[in-house]
């Protein structure tokens, strides 16, 4: 039964960098690739106003709103976890569509770049947490070269080491 459900679950491949956030839904082939900026409304009810290229316009139109690139920091990939979480969650919902009923996706998340000494255990944990908070039923972190669709499928089926 579980194996049958996994065939129906969407697989989302996410690449993260300070310059671009890319999501690909392997089931539909749809891809979203945008600058990783998010406009967040002013406190106390902080919510996503817009993402990507529309973020700056939305922030200008809403007093107290701010535009954040949560992946733009010289020493670490995630500079603002809360904003990163809001951005990734918003984009995962967007790529899954507006279906009332859908199975939680399996997410392969790929931080791009090669920091000196590699990504730390704390960064790996934060990256994994981004995928889980975006609704993933299972998440894998991939470093190295960008994956092909076949390699992504092999990661989620356990045939390729993440």
Provide a brief overview of the structure.
This protein has 162 residues and is of the alpha/beta class. Helices cover 31% and strands 22% of the residues. The strands form 2 sheets. The chain has a 5-stranded mixed sheet with strand order 3-2-1-7-8, with helices on both faces.
Summarize this structure as a short list of keywords or feature phrases.
Nucleotidyltransferase, domain 5, alpha/beta, 5 helices, globular, five-stranded mixed beta sheet, 8 strands, three-stranded antiparallel beta sheet, 162 residues
Question: Can you offer a commentary on this structure?
Answer:
The protein has 162 residues and is an alpha/beta fold. It has a domain at 10-33 and 75-156: ATPase, nucleotide binding domain (Nucleotidyltransferase, domain 5). The protein contains five helices and eight strands; from the N terminus they run H-E-E-E-E-E-H-E-H-E-H-E-H. It has helices spanning 2-8, 55-61, 81-96, 121-133, 149-156; strands spanning 11-16, 21-25, 31-34, 38-40, 48-51, 66-68, 106-111, 138-141. The chain has a five-stranded mixed sheet, sandwiched between helices. Strands 5-4-6 form a three-stranded antiparallel sheet, sandwiched between helices. Helix 4 links the parallel strand 7 (106-111) and strand 8 (138-141). Helix 3 packs across helix 4. The longest helix has 16 residues, at 81-96. The protein is globular, with a radius of gyration of 16 Å. The protein starts with a helix and ends in a 6-residue tail after the last helix.
